[in-house]
Amino acid sequence: MLDTRPRLGSDTQREAIIRVRGLEVGFGERTIMKDLDLDVYRGEILGFVGASGTGKSVLTRAVLGLIPKRAGTIEVFGENVDALSPASRKAIERRWGVLFQFGALFSSLSVKENVQVPMREYLHLSERLLDELAMLKIEMVGLKPDAADKLPSELSGGMIKRAALARALALDPEILFLDEPTSGLDPIGAGEFDDLIATLQRTLGLTVFMVTHDLDSLHTVCDRIAALGGGRIIAAGTIETMLASDHPWLKAYFHGKRARAVMASEA
Amino acid sequence: MATSDVVREPQLTIDQIGDELRATLAGRWTADQAPAVERCVADLLAAIGDERRIIFDLSSVERLDTLGAWVLDRTRHDLGASGHSADFVGARSEHHILLNEVAYRGFQPNPVVKRSWLIDFLSEVGQAVVAAGKDFAAGISFLGEVVIAMVRVATRPRRFRGPSLVHHLELIAFRGVPIIALISFLVGCIVAQQGIFQLRKFGATPFVVDLVGILTLREVGVLLTAIMVAGRSGSSFTAEIGSMKMREEIDALRVMGLDPIEVLIVPRLLALIIGLPLLAFLSDLAALYGGGLVAWIYGDVSPDVYLSRLRAAISLNTFLAGIIKAPFMALIIGLIASMEGLAVEGSAESLGRHVTSSVVKAIFMVIVVDGVFAMFFAAIRY
Q1: Domain for residue A185, yes or no?
Q2: Residue A6's pLDDT is what?
Q3: B216 and B343 within one domain
Q4: ipTM for the complex?
Q5: Would A195 be classed as within a structural domain?
Q6: Closest to B94 (Cβ–Cβ): which among A132, A133, A202?
Q7: Which chain A residue is nearest to residue B69, measuring alpha carbons?
Q8: Between β-strands A207-211 and A175-179, what pairing exists: parallel, antiparallel or unpaired?
Q9: Which residues does chain A have within 8 Å of residue B104's beta carbon, measured at their own beta carbons?
């Protein structure tokens, strides 16, 4: 690396699967983030925190290419996403799965058909395998088989999250983007969801980029945490680094009443 | 497997050792290789004779994903079910976890019920008739609810939502002015041109003024406007109310003790009832202007003659016979649009279906109402 600036949470030994440098994003007059650097390493679960409205979702969407950036570079799998041909961009999109905050399931398709959408598009599977694989993913995320033929409007909030995860996992992606995966789930469901993500991460060798406010998730499954504030990364590192930080927002976040409750229950 | 090249395709080598069959797997057993994966497994199943024991050697598998693991474990299970004993050896730890994670389980496909097409056809016809009947009943009951809400608003004028009415009036009437004026102008031109073309054969060109005047004021102006409004505003009402229904906004109104009909539908309906006659009047003007222009240019009827003949040909009741229909048509468009909007269910597809049926039903009913009025006016010689 030629860049000698000291960087928060950077680690030269490990392969950065997503590398964001000098990112600037804004809408109209408003600049949401400026000079933002972020690395996500292969095989880790990165928890991404920040106060509401600081642009966590904006950063995720910028990495996914859903909103334009004003400056900076984004490299995914070592390739600059701006310099890609449409074909190689498609190839990269095949290798990531996204769980949107509200599921974003296609409302006119059943859960099974939702899971099969990317499979039909990218894979050449026999009908039998297509069905079996979709059912497998649906079971892997903890849904009952009879949920497969339901429409998204017939599902509860937690089931929508799970179904959307099944769709995100349809192509066995290498990177999984999760936007608040456990919000709206009961604590037991959220815990199961965390375990599920950890298991999948181990078995499939996933890299997980998880925007979350769930302190339990941060404690139990995240290898590393990055905190966003004031349009840049204010800290990145393990939970210990976060707990040791002097930044007022981080102190409030990780030493607040809710955080203490989580710590107490773990001790 | 001695090649040092990267093995991409999944490969399967079968060795027979005594009564044991050893299947050595290599390459990528992943979803993008699905056809080859299935082929390999089919080859294996074909190669199995009366061996009791089958061993899958996974030590040189390069990559394994859920698809590969699923197919392997399914094969193992199938072999077990047919009296063989099948085992995996040499699996790397992460492959082992994956194989456990996808452990075979049967998925029962939903039974497909076969019925005769005749019964299907008859049942669909029956359902459509019942649905149409229910639609009609629901329409009447909805009209009742709207009337009650209007009476409630009328008795307590403070509950009336003035700003909402003005807003919708702007959207329906004011923003609709250019397109409705343009279309009516063009239709006026066309009616005049056709009239002149046909009447010229009889040397009766000046009668085109009577034709344009009566046709426009009695029928074309209001009908054209109603159809345009059904397409422009009816569809947007249905889409607005439908997406509010999808996002539970209607329920939110209800739990706050607000009546969705009073809040959402009464202002829209009133705006339609006020706006449509205004637009119909504008449409009359534009069509008469277009007709006059064509009569002048194409039929040599000078504007003076046009105006004086028009005055002789039409009277106030010609105009009223048209404009009286406008509020009724507005009511029908508004009721159908609101009902369809409230009938939207969770999916985007349902929204699209209801918007379509709102416009189709509204246009159909507008024409039916126009026909009823034509008969009524003929009967009372208006």
Answers
A1: no
A2: 41
A3: yes
A4: 0.74
A5: no
A6: A202
A7: A133
A8: parallel
A9: none
User: Could you tell me if B101 lies within 8 Å of chain A, comparing CB atoms?
Assistant: yes
Q: Which two tokens stand for residue A207?
A: 């890299």
Pair B209, B96 in one domain: no
User: Is A119 in contact with B31 (Cβ distance < 8 A)?
Assistant: yes
Tokens 């009952």 appear where?
A144
Is B129 within the bounds of a domain?
Answer: no
- pTM of the full structure: 0.74
Domain assignment present for residue A121? The answer is yes
Range of the domain at B76: 11-101
Q: Which helix (H) or strand (E) holds A49?
A: strand A45-50
Q: Judge whether residue B54 has pLDDT over 90.
A: no
CA distance A125 to chain B (A): 6
Residue B162, classed as helix, strand or coil, is: helix
Disruptive mutation site among A130, A137, A138, A172 for chain B (greatest number of B CBs within 10 Å) = A172
| In a shared domain, residues B238 and B332 | yes
Residue B346 to residue A123, Cβ atoms within 8 A: no
Q: Give the minimum alpha-carbon distance from B58 to chain A in angstroms, rounded to a whole number.
A: 16
Q: What is the pLDDT of residues B27-46, one digit of tens each?
A: 888 888 888 888 888 888 88
Q: Classify strands A79-80 and A71-76 as parallel, antiparallel or unpaired.
A: antiparallel
Please tell me if residue B248 touches chain A, with a CB cutoff of 8 Å. no
Distances (CA, A) of B276 to A83, A139, B228, B291, B324: 55, 55, 10, 22, 11
Q: What is the pLDDT of residues A198-230, one digit of tens each?
A: 888 887 778 999 998 888 888 888 888 888 887
Nearest to B31 among A139, A172, A205 (CB): A172
Report if residue B6 sits inside a domain. no
State whether B288 and B197 are in the same domain: yes
The number of residues in chain A equals: 267
Residue A144 lies in a domain: yes
Query: In Å, how far is B61's CA from the nearest CA of chain A?
Result: 14
Domain count for chain B: 2
Count of domains for chain A: 1
